[in-house]
Amino acid sequence: MKILSIIISSILLFEGVSEKVVKKADKAISIFFNTENITKKIISLDNYSKLKGTDTEQKTVMQLTDKNNKNLGFAVLSKGKGRFDDFDFIVIYNNNLVVKKVKVLKYISSRGAEICSNNWLKQFVNNSQKHEYGKNIDALSGATISAQSIVNEINLINKIMSTLKSEKAI
Amino acid sequence: MPELDLHCKNKSFFQLKMIIMKRIIGVLTLSIIALGLFAQENDTPKNMAEDLMSRESKLTIGGYGSIDFNQPLNSDVIQNGTLDVHRMVLMFGYKFNDRTQFVTEIELEHVKEVFVEQAFLDYKINDFIHFRGGLMLIPMGIINQYHEPTTFNGVERPIIDGAIAPTTWREIGAGFTGNIKEASLKYQLYVVNGFNGYNGVGTLRGKDGLRKGRQKGAESFMSSPNITARVDYYGISGLSLGISGYFGKSQSTMYNGINKNNETEIAVADSTVVGISMIGLDARYSIKGFQLRGQYYFTGLSNTDQYNKKTGKDLGKTMTGFYAEAGYNIFHSFQNIKTELIPFVRYQTLNTHASVTNEMITNDSYKIDEIAFGLGWKMSKGAMLKADMQLLKSKADDNYKKTLNIGIAIWF
């Protein structure tokens, strides 16, 4: 009976899906930098000719500063594509644009959920080379589409960040 | 359907069934495509494929197929090879909204046999638990769930997934599934209808265990519910570990119509039923270019002596199956080569008479060892050419029987 009531109350909790992802992103950023009250300034990806033709639609680049206005680094919120559903993930950079953390925030299906493994995601940390799934990024058993997608997206995000740097936007 | 009767008077029942099946598939495919188009909010005319595949699209289409060539090799006797479009499967996924999804797989086996492999509704209750109901894959072992032919080495599916965990094993049921990513765990728990063990005659037998009892969602009957569960752990990078269980009694048509107080008749019906306890342990490990996998099954069957006496079958008391396989992508370290060339080697063993009840004699031909080795060339993510040699020997044989297999495998 207890399980039934938990299930019923869960069904009644209707939250906006994106809101939830933003909350999870905030939490991941706070935990990583070990600080609360981090200011996130969104950096627009429009008007850069070098980024023309790149898929910047579902990516949000944020500059992070602490409560004393000290630069902490950057975070990019992005979507990837699994077999049946899109998933949400975050890439956290330090001030030198080195990837320090990748975390999957929301993954709906079970198929391909192996990309959520924090240990597997560690391969992207401190790694600025172009990633190739199955080559310099170890393959995953049971996740093909989602794994290839997150690799592609991270490559793209790294390229976007270095473009923003060369354009002196960050 | 009177219109069909007139035209098809002279056609056999089989041909009639095929015509009806083809029409049903045609209508189903068209209606699902129409549903997808109707779901688009955009009015601008688009190429149908672009439409369906666009980011906001609610419809996902996929599929897999395998075309096989099998050639038994024998130095004394001429043997014909066989070529077969072994499987051609279409998958449709439809997202009604962020929480609700329907997934179906329609399969054509050997070109002529039509099956529905999956047809289930998935509802996300929260981040950790989904409700699922319909015709679902029993989560036993690697192959039954991950059976797309580009995901495993060798042309044919492993023999333990034929005789012990009878792939493609799917039944109608309902339950819960979810992914707890903080713990790197996935789980599934379903209540399903069981194997048809008796429908006037016994269906389960020593040679391939429970395989002939699969009901596949085709007007299945249920005399008692069965339960199945699986947990996957993926916390270690590249390693996937799974433990599966299946428990319950086989089903029997004999129960139908018996008065609930009639203990004698119930006892007779009970003799047409076996209890099933199956455990599976599996591991898959990808590291650098290596692909390693292992699978173990153990099945315990109860009441087999009564069952065999009643039905004249030779079901074993326990069944076991195991394989260990290693493959390596030769092109892994070559930055410029995008395709994969994967030689592999596998040792496999199964025994559907691992133990038998006292009055029975163990059948040596039910203990089979296999050595397989081969090569796969993945020309792209979803397209693969495979060739392998299977050496099979039962305990009753003197020599290994050799078969050469070559196949085309696709997945999209």
CATH topology of chain B: Porin
Q: List the total number of helices of chain B.
A: 6
The span between the termini of chain B is: 37 Å
Strand content of chain B: over 45%
Rg of chain A over CA atoms, rounded to whole Å, is 17 Å
Task: Give the distance, in angstroms, between the N- and C-terminal Cα atoms of chain A.
Answer: 55 Å
The total strand number of chain B stands at 18
pLDDT averaged over residues of chain B = 90
**Percent of residues of chain B in helical segments?**
10-25%
Overall shape of chain B = globular
Can you tell me the CATH class of chain B?
Mainly Beta
Largest sheet of chain A: 5 strands, antiparallel
Number of domains of chain A: 1
In short:
The complex is a heterodimer of chains A (about 170) and B (about 400). Chain A is of the alpha+beta class and about 170 residues long.
Structure, described:
The complex is a heterodimer of chains A (170) and B (412). Chain A has helices at 2-11, 17-33, 118-121, 145-166, and strands at 39-43, 60-65, 71-81, 86-93, 99-106. Chain A has 170 residues and is an alpha+beta fold. Chain A has one domain. A five-stranded antiparallel β-sheet of chain A has the order 1-2-3-4-5, with helices on both faces. The longest helix of chain A is centred in the C-terminal third of the chain and has 22 residues, at 145-166. The termini of chain A are far apart. Chain B is mainly β. Chain B has one domain (58-411): Beta Barrel (Porin). Chain B is 14% helix and 48% strand. Chain B has helices at residues 2-7, 13-39, 48-53, 160-163, 263-270, 304-311, and strands spanning 59-73, 82-95, 100-109, 113-126, 129-137, 170-180, 185-193, 196-198, 225-233, 239-249, 251-252, 275-287, 290-302, 318-328, 340-355, 367-380, 383-394, 401-411. In chain B, the strands form two sheets. A 16-stranded antiparallel beta barrel of chain B has the order 1-2-3-4-5-6-7-9-10-12-13-14-15-16-17-18. The A-B interface holds A 7, 10-11, 13, 17, 83-86, 104, 106-110, 113-114, 116-120, 122-123, 132, 134-135, 138-142, 144, 148 and B 55, 60, 62, 93, 95, 98, 101, 103, 124-127, 129-130, 146, 151, 177-179, 181, 184, 186, 188, 232, 234-240, 284-288, 291, 293, 329, 332-333, 335, 340, 381.
